[in-house]
Specification:
- By secondary structure, the protein is of the alpha/beta class.
- The chain folds into three domains: 109 residues, 2-Layer Sandwich (Nucleotidyltransferase, domain 5), CATH 3.30.420; 191 residues, Nucleotidyltransferase, domain 5; 194 residues, Orthogonal Bundle (Hypothetical protein af1432).
- Helix content is 51%, strand content 15%.
- It is built from 22 helices and 14 strands.
- The strands form four sheets. Strands 3-2-1-4-5 form a five-stranded mixed β-sheet, sandwiched between helices. A four-stranded mixed β-sheet has the order 8-7-6-9, with helices on both faces.
Length: 518
């Protein structure tokens, strides 16, 4: 089916007011912010109202009609506030929903209701987007703590339905894992036991023990020196009960035990939380405590700044990440390629050739830097399918990439990378191919453009010997002429180009011609 993804926003001029709306697990929030001359966003207004989305989903499998109407009412109220600020109430910069909404049987009903009642197109945050948001929050935390940036640090985000872990070594991401373990998911799973106090803690610990043990196993080969805990519930109580960002594990254990003896009403009053957050607080504390203890850490780091406010801020900038973030994405792709024993020199050289063509032909393809990043990832991964079999390895590459995670890429990104890799040889994109046909028209065009460039680059690296390093491009009517200085015999490259340049000509209307250096 066509993608519902909102196009990545362009960098904002100074003084522009932007808005982010988040339908979260237990609340609906909105941030209005102003861009400043040096780049950061300055909050102008922050609104948050409770809504029991996660409770409904994990208890009944659907979002109740009452909760849907609650969300609609809150969003309409926010839109009225935007009108009072002189902003378009339907022109929210980014409108997103928690990833657990996709688990609701009636998630399309929720989306449709918001579109009809509020005129908003809401997209669901997927795992790739969530890792970008965690990366942004962690980068800020590591910048505040230079000593921590030099060490091996595990960042753990315990969300409403899933837990994610990112391993940073000397400030760089080297591993990423995800677990079906969350605060609200756990709350509803143990609710029927009717256990209280320390007995409830034991029930929670037993329920999450399998996933917690998997965390220990996944990181047993590294010497973790620090841990950063991120999450809506734990950050809601961190600043008032666990110190200014740094907390001894015994203090976290003491708070967890204390909380286990409180009713939800008492939690609301003591910690000044809404009821939805109060319901999930104990599972959040116990899960974070269990992970910290199994990793045998003496203290934890918890960002004191509000989780929701930070998330809304980061939603407005995560799509425009460049520099270090792109490096992390490419490193993740390289690690994946290594796992499948793909030739690293070939992938790197094809990537360099892709970068050259992408930059030289920018007026022709009119793609953006995010597309350039996806092309680089596809170049690194295009031959991973040979791990399964050299025969039809382009199809195996598509399958392996589709069923893998690349840090920082969302599901649409991964799909595009997989298809571009698939089309690096043999047949061109076709509506007979399910994954390609499922894309919207604009995304199918992106795949064709990126795959066309990859096929040309791969043809020049047909020998896997990095023979082509310098290229001079000359454009003629209906032709793209490539001069290869230093290469006296390009027979192999010309033969490969004959079979691979068809998509480039179909897409851009230019036949690719190779000239040797005579």
């Amino acid at each position: 089916m066509p993608s519902d993804r909102t196009p990545a926003p362009e960098p904002l001029p100074s003084g522009t007011l932007v808005t982010a709306l988040h339908i979260g697990a237990s609340s609906v929030s909105m941030l209005v912010a102003e861009s400043s001359p040096d780049g950061p966003l300055t909050p102008v207004d922050f609104l948050e109202q409770p809504a029991p989305v996660a409770r409904d989903i994990f208890r009944d499998g659907t979002v109740s009609l009452a909760t849907i109407e609650r969300i609609v009412s809150v969003v309409k109220g926010y839109q009225k506030s935007l009108t009072e600020l002189g902003l378009d109430p339907n022109g929210i910069t980014r409108a997103v929903a928690t990833n657990i909404l996709s688990e609701a049987k009636n998630h399309e009903t929720v989306m449709n209701r918001l579109r009809v009642a509020c005129g908003l197109k809401v997209s669901v945050i997927d795992d790739g987007e969530m890792t970008r948001l965690i990366y942004l929050k962690t980068r800020r935390r590591l910048q505040q703590l230079p000593d921590l940036r030099k060490r091996t640090v595990l960042v753990v985000h315990v969300g409403p339905g899933n837990t994610r872990a990112l391993l940073f070594q000397k400030g760089r991401i080297t591993r990423y894992t995800s677990y079906r373990l969350g605060t609200h998911r756990t709350r509803e799973a143990v609710e029927g036991t009717h256990a209280e106090g320390t007995a409830l803690l034991r029930v929670i610990r037993e329920h999450v023990s399998g996933n917690v043990e998997q965390v220990r196993f996944d990181y047993s080969d590294v010497d973790i020196k620090g841990i950063v805990l991120i999450g809506y519930e734990i950050q809601s109580v961190a600043s008032t009960r666990l110190g200014d960002g740094q907390c001894r594990v015994p203090a976290l254990r003491e708070l967890t035990t204390e909380t286990s003896h409180l009713t939800d009403v008492e939690i609301v009053k003591r910690f000044r939380l809404d009821y939805q957050t109060a319901e999930a607080l104990l599972p959040a504390l116990e899960i974070n405590l269990a992970i910290s203890e199994i990793l045998k850490l003496a203290e934890v780091q918890i960002p004191a700044t509000g989780f929701e406010l930070g998330l809304l801020h980061d939603l407005l900038v995560s799509k425009n990440l460049t520099g270090n973030f792109a490096t992390e994405v490419l490193r993740s792709a390289t690690i994946l390629a290594k796992r499948y024993k793909s030739d690293p020199r070939h992938g790197k050289h094809v990537g360099a050739l892709c970068e050259f063509f992408f930059n030289e032909l920018s007026d022709l393809h009119q793609l953006n830097q995010h597309d350039a990043l996806l092309l680089q990832v596809a170049a690194i991964l295009h031959e991973v399918g040979t791990f399964v079999s050299p025969r039809a390895h382009h199809k195996h590459s598509e399958y392996l990439i589709l069923n893998s995670e690349v840090f920082g890429l969302d599901r649409l990104d991964v799909t595009i990378v997989a298809l571009v890799a698939r089309y690096h040889r043999h047949s061109c994109p076709s509506l007979d191919h399910p994954s390609y046909a499922a894309l919207g028209v604009d995304d199918r065009i992106r795949v064709c453009k990126l795959a066309a460039i990859l096929r040309v680059a791969d043809a020049l690296e047909r020998t896997h010997a990095q023979r082509v390093s310098d290229i001079t491009i000359t454009r003629e009517p209906r032709k793209l002429r490539l001069h290869l200085p230093g290469l006296n015999d390009a027979a192999v490259e010309r033969l490969a180009m004959h079979s691979k340049a068809d998509l480039f000509e179909q897409t851009f209307g230019l036949a690719v011609v190779i000239d040797e250096d005579n």
